[in-house]
## 1
Amino acid sequence: MMERKFAIAIDGPAASGKSTAAKGVSRILDFLYIDTGAMYRAFTLFMLEKGKDPKSEEDALALLPDFRMKEDKDGHVYLDGRDVTDRIRERDVSSLVSYACAYKAVREKLVDIQREMAEGESVVMDGRDIGTVVLPDADLKIFQIASVEARAKRRYLENRQKGIAGTLEEIEKEIEKRDYIDSHRENSPLTKAKDAIVLDTSDMTIQEEIDTIVSLFKKKVGDLWKDTEQSL
Ligand code: DC
């Protein structure tokens, strides 16, 4: 009998702590972690490197067939074989990513890649449209939210650790702007699935977030998970 595979979808606005929580959950459950925002970031970087304007849909569509990216098990992202994991977090990419990811053809191609990556695996996937579009049958759907202040502070500390410049105020403005673009454009990808559980993480530590998601998952799948654990 084929081993039962599981999927956890974690959606939410920019810098709500999704990727850190998703990574932690994937380690505990030994699932594959897939960071979908990283793919839209990689496409934005690809456009910039080709000297194109991410605000131009025409340019985006022209480049799309040449876009080759890979994401490994630990969330490292490669563009044409080069490791761009840190580069795609820099501010030029962050401030332009909302444009390139709004084009239908770009979304379709990346959603295809995301589904392919998830096939035959137990996964934790984070993004905006995972519970609604990419994995509508996920076993657990989390819609993670946090106040702008809490999100800006997290991203600021994360950036400082990575040596990425920017003040707390600048990051707060950037997050507000990105939230606005993400939620006001036509067909915004950020929508809560009907069956998603809302998790407000403003006052939670990362460990609390991870523990909460793992226990929600175990509760949700119940005996199915216990059977799998015993057969490990
Ligand atoms: O999660 P993040 O900040 O790395 O995401 C970067 C951008 O990609 C963000 O502006 C929204 C977009 N995105 C998307 O449209 N759909 C996803 N599934 C994931 C991210």
## 2
Amino acid sequence: MSNKRTNLNGRDFIVVGGAGYIGSHVCKVISEHGGRPITFDNLSTGHAHAVKWGPFENVDVRHGANLDAAFAKYPEAKIVIHLASSIEVGIGEKHPAEFYDNNVTGALALLNAMRRAEATHVVFSSTCATYGETENMPLLETEPQNPVSTYGKTKLAIEHMIQSFHTAYGLNYVTLRYFNACGADASGDIGEEHDPETHLIPLAITSALGQRGKMKIFGTNYDTPDGTCIRDYIHVSDIALAHIDTIAAFDRGLDTAEVNIGTGIGVSNLEILKTIEKISGRPLPYISAPRRAGDLSKLYADPRKAKITIGFSPKHSDLRNIIQTAWNFHSKAPRN
Ligand code: UDP
């Protein structure tokens, strides 16, 4: 089909964290492009009902022996997509031990298991939170990385670990630094299901649905056109397709890259609320709340390197489509 990026010809791909929000969308597009996604996940935050496109291995990323047993079942899988991690920024500040264990210890155990299994390539889910505080927008990959949050620090530690494994052991890698993941698959079957939920769009939609109280907007006096923070919202289906583009780039011989995955377009918190009101036809009143610690006023990507290096450009990230797909997902009956 013309909208397919490449043909994965029945190949196996290990998707660590494949039961999660982004991971389940990655598994779906791998399957749509003719590959077989193998989900490794311990279901600590992922959902069994989101594993639909290939085998499932219930394995904790920190447990080397269990990883070895799981890898042994799929000896043809040479590319590993690593998305499993603790992501809730506030929890990372309260429980850094948990974050370093899940994220950094987990990544080390995974990379070592990959070496034993002779897997050759890793695609790593990193984040714009590795850059830290800066006024330099749009953000280039060359911006110094100086993360503020424990979450960002753990992701940067893993980026460094992967770079060392490349230098010493020849591991090929692409690090994808996602901006704000959002939206849901067009089917409405998979989407954002975090517990606790802290992200703007799902909170605002559930607020408009009457499932929670009024939205609080953290900071309405920033130095931005409407006073609220600006972010770069990239549809989860586009993030998933960036992984297909990365696989195709590996197949063409790419050995290493760090790239931003964003749209390059900044959208304010109030624009998000207005779009939800428009799409849903429901009022979405909000309360002005104090600024949230660590929030930058503006954060948006320079997306050019992703286009040049892996051939990625977003197709699904029009704001109306983001909100419509997220709305469809959240307005369906609760899942198990
Ligand atoms: N935000 C908000 N109210 C909320 C949750 C988020 O005003 O209940 C704001 C937050 O301060 C930031 C933007 O929405 O300006 C995006 O936050 P989110 O947590 O979704 O993603 P982040 O950019 O922190 O990764």
